[in-house]
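[09:14] KT: can someone run the structure on this one? pasting the chain below
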Amino acid sequence: MVFLAVIAVFAGIVGYYFLSGKPTLVRMGALAVGVVVGAVLFFFSPSGGEFMAFARESVREVRKVVWPERKDSLRMTAIVFGFVLLMAVFLWGTDKLFDFVLYNLILGWKN
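[09:31] RB: done, structure tokens below
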């Protein structure tokens, strides 16, 4: 059944390009019919049923999540940005130190 759904969507895409001389509305209609028929075939297949069960279970699980409050989210975001800034400065300093040691002290090239 999933194979038929894929064929229906593919037929809609082929119909869109096959009707290149027709008005855009007709071409879009052919594409839409192919996608809708493919979706209906997919949702009535066993794989579609499993997907719908998975989607319902996912929504049920998302409703159980305890989301952090705005204050907590802002605080954690500030901590992450601060850490990223600190690491950026540290890596920049390390790079400049290695640059100085390698080019000025070891190789004597003086930048």
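[09:33] KT: thanks! The mean pLDDT is 92.
[09:34] RB: yep, looked fine to me
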